[in-house]
């Protein structure tokens, strides 16, 4: 029988392994408590388990949610955009595929969660990075600042989006000048 040789598509060539590959091997050590990847070794509180058991007793949990919106969310405020997602990775991937064209640029504020850049690249986009800079000692997230002039210089005719992750993962920085971003996005 002839062997079949697998070749990846061009759109995923050059995507580096992510940091979680390294952490998975480190966390395999039984002396390590891994809270970073959704594998906690600590059992949940009994009230959480009891609540889950009660929720499982409700009828009609064995079917798909309505494709035009969960009734509870539609009734909550039908004039707002409420999106229920399967998970963050899936929603990010779908969003980038829907919005980013070949050559579009997407601005990211560093540091950021490692999955974002590969999803932009897979959509044909170009990640544009701008770092938060540490001013003084890292006592709190307020010690990390964004140079607004540097940010403004990143916008151009190819800018499709800016990812505003607030509070920032992993340092917890909150961006209170959101209107600054919106101003530059629409006026540049």
From TrEMBL:
One of its GO terms (biological process) is L-kynurenine catabolic process. Its EC number is 2.6.1.63, 2.6.1.7, 4.4.1.13. Pfam families: Aminotran_1_2. Its cofactor is pyridoxal 5'-phosphate. One of its GO terms (cellular component) is mitochondrion. Homodimer. It catalyses: 3-hydroxy-L-kynurenine + glyoxylate = xanthurenate + glycine + H2O; L-kynurenine + glyoxylate = kynurenate + glycine + H2O; L-kynurenine + 2-oxoglutarate = kynurenate + L-glutamate + H2O; an S-substituted L-cysteine + H2O = a thiol + pyruvate + NH4(+). Pathway: Amino-acid degradation; L-kynurenine degradation; kynurenate from L-kynurenine: step 1/2. Residues 32-173 form the Aminotransferase class I/classII large domain. It comes from Sinocyclocheilus anshuiensis. PANTHER family: FI04487P, KYNURENINE--OXOGLUTARATE TRANSAMINASE 3. This is Kynurenine--oxoglutarate transaminase 3. Belongs to the class-I pyridoxal-phosphate-dependent aminotransferase family. The keyword Lyase applies. The keyword Manganese does not apply. Keywords: Aminotransferase, Lyase, Pyridoxal phosphate, Transferase. One of its GO terms (molecular function) is kynurenine-glyoxylate transaminase activity.
């Amino acid at each position: 029988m002839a062997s079949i040789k697998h070749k990846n598509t061009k759109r995923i060539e050059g995507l580096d392994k992510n940091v979680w590959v390294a952490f998975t091997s480190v966390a395999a050590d039984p002396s390590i408590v891994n809270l970073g990847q959704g594998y906690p070794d600590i059992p949940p509180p009994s009230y959480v388990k009891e609540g889950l058991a009660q929720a499982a007793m409700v009828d009609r949990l064995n079917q798909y949610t309505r494709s035009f919106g969960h009734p509870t969310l539609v009734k909550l405020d039908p004039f707002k955009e409420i999106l229920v997602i399967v998970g963050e990775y899936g929603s990010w991937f779908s969003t980038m595929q829907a919005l980013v064209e070949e050559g579009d640029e997407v601005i990211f504020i560093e540091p950021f969660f490692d999955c974002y850049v590969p999803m932009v690249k897979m959509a044909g986009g170009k990640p544009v990075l701008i770092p938060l800079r540490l001013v003084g000692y890292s006592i709190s997230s307020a010690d990390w600042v964004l140079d607004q002039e540097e940010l403004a210089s990143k916008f151009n005719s190819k800018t499709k989006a800016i990812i505003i992750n607030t509070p920032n993962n992993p340092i917890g920085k909150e961006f209170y000048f959101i209107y600054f971003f919106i101003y530059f996005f629409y006026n540049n």
